[in-house]
Design brief:
- Keywords: Hydrolase.
- Belongs to the UPF0173 family.
- This is UPF0173 metal-dependent hydrolase JMN32_24500.
- The chain is α/β, with parallel strands linked by helices.
- The protein is built from 6 helices and 14 strands.
- The relative contact order is 0.15.
Length: 226
Amino acid sequence: MEVTYFGHSCFLVTTAGKQLLFDPFITPNELAKDINIGEIKADYIILSHGHQDHIADVENIYKNNQPQIISTFEVVSWFANKGLKNGHSMNHGGSWDFDFGTLKMVNAVHSSSMPDGSYGGNPAGFVIKSQNKAFYYAGDTALHYDMKLIEDEFNIDFAFLPIGSNFTMGIEDANKAADFVGTKKVIGMHYDTFPLIKINHGEAVSAFQDHGKELVLMGIGETINL
């Protein structure tokens, strides 16, 4: 699998010949000012919840190649009402077989509303099985015990976890979350974008190392293979 980071919680995962874009918040993010969203191609846009810092660029990227939007019923319906009709709505606990693999929507503990203040449904995370691997994209979440159910069902190769604290779990709880889902490899997200979620990179990496895990803090625009 190939993973490209576009800042905040936005990643492009290429797997099984398909491009999966998670939570695109790029143009409003000063840290991602060198990213040209006109060059981003996606087959799917996967949205964890409706907050602006996770959906800001959906409409513009959708215009480029009309990817299918995967999210909760409420988020998919909100975009459909804006003319973005290619959607696949889901709800917590549900799974679906797509052409890239299987996606299961799992719980997240956060909040969700759309930019106009309308109801955004419950926030979510996702577990994706593709090309004999499985990964967990947590979305915005606190640490919660339901994460242990992920380890019961899947062998998680790596996880995208929020680490910025204040609005989501921080370093200590993300360490525990990795234990709960059963992975030693974590890709950090939802940090540094705003003053309230800035972190010390060295301390964060060391904290995971101290618990026998690897925390990957990707550079914006960087691509890695997993």
